[in-house]
Amino acid sequence: MEMMENEHEITEKSQSDPQHFVHHYNHYLPQIYNYVFYKVGNTHVAEDIVSDTFYKALKNISKYKNKGFFQAWLFAIARNTVISHYRKNSREILYSFDNTDHPDPVTVEDIVSTKESRAELLNKVASLPPNQQDALLLRYTEDLKIKEIACILNKSEGAVKLLLHRGLRNLYSELSNSEKGSAVLYREAVLYR
Description:
Rna Polymerase Sigma Factor, Chain: A, 193 residues, disordered C terminus, mainly alpha
């Protein structure tokens, strides 16, 4: 089943019968989980937040106005749930990307050679302002379009482009100052794009 062709139909059916929501859940779970994991750096917390995200989406599906941006609507719910999590648990460490329990989308050989530089890259991303982090993660790890990111962040497309530009510039600056150098980390940024 092609998700984009049937998304509108599935969303309408989900509004009257929650059984149909499982299609959205199965399709978007990996993307939402990856985004949340990159934001919290902990598998168990990410699972809880993702669960809350889909619960909130299902509970509020009747409020969704079908404008062709269901994915953006889900990411906005996930982002707001992450923000709520940190407000409730403000004493927790904000980012801990040294955690290695997240499955990497590369081969075992690649994991051995890239784990340290990947963790360093994610720590550099984590040092950026939150809106720049969100824009970079949504664009380069989730492959969302500028228009979708604008919808999620509640910003104009121009503002998102500016966030991406500044985020990449700041990330490049951070990576250039790194003792390992920017070439290896740039390769990792492209690898996890």
